[in-house]
Amino acid sequence: SVSGAFWEHLRHLGLQDFPCGLGSWNKSRFDACTRPREGQPGLGADPAGQEEAMPLGDESPEALMELLSDWHSPWALPPDCSPQDQHLREMAVLAPELVRGSRIFQVLRSLRIVGKGVEEVDNGLLQLQQLEELILSANQISSITSANLPRTLKVLELCCNAVADLQDLCTQPPPELQHLGLGYNRLCGPSQHKYLTADFWPNLVSLDLSFNNFTDLLGLVSQLSSLQKLRLLVLQGNPLVLIPTYRGFLVDSLPKLSILDDIHIGPDERHQFHGLARQPELIRSEARVVVSIGEIKGVPDPSARQPLEVGSEAPVITYSYCVMYKF
């Protein structure tokens, strides 16, 4: 589940282990801050005074932070770590109480669980009451129950999973979602078209449907046209992009779109395709593929055989071959 992968990820970050968390390396400093006594600085005390009063064995916040940032340090995060991971570890040094136990649910804004074999999006995510970005790419998710998603989500990335149906996701979708990533899944139309409208995604700005199995361009565009805030759309990798008038029809049908298949839509292109949306008869749900055979190995060349003499009684042997192409 996502929750299981989340807790495993936190364990890997070591938020309660040196140089993070509370321990002999900083405990007296936080005791002084939380329980000020005579002769000891409290929260409003001068930092220089704290530095002077720091007992032997304690490490300054600056020294601990340096252990996190120095790439030669054994406690540094790998270069491919997310900014959120780095932020959590820094917070575990400067304010360790904020990332202890359930308090961490109040500070997480982004969660990235990639390639961890996750199959279930469980209701444990509802504890992350401030979560705005959820990245679950390259897992094994086939269905998402929207009731298990925090209502604060603005980004949901599900690229490279096994999603074939959007019904459960659209039961109670996050109302403020701005990006929905569904590339490299198993979606096909027209049964899924009805879930790609403003009724479910009123604030959607970016939609990635690349490398699925959408074939009905007219049907898909009729639903996408309700997404008034949509500015970025990715459909490359679907069979419908083989239609000759694909890009022009989309550019003219969705006038507020700014980027299609990672290519900016300029004024010249809009002018060029103006009026194409009113000519659906130009949209053909078919494509032609021409295959040219340059050379076949392993088959005898019939032109190299010697012709039989006239009147020869030699037996004639006929060969036939079948060459198959799979698309």
Automatic annotation (TrEMBL):
Entry keyword annotation includes Transmembrane helix: no
PROSITE patterns: LRR (PS51450)
Region (Disordered): 34-55
Keyword terms: Leucine-rich repeat, Repeat
Tree of life domain: Eukaryota
GO cellular component, one term: cytoplasm
InterPro entries from the UniProt entry: Leu-rich_rpt (IPR001611), LRR_dom_sf (IPR032675)
Statement: the UniProt record of this protein carries the keyword Repeat: yes
Protein name, entry field: Leucine-rich repeat-containing protein 43
Taxonomy of the source species: Eukaryota, Metazoa, Chordata, Craniata, Vertebrata
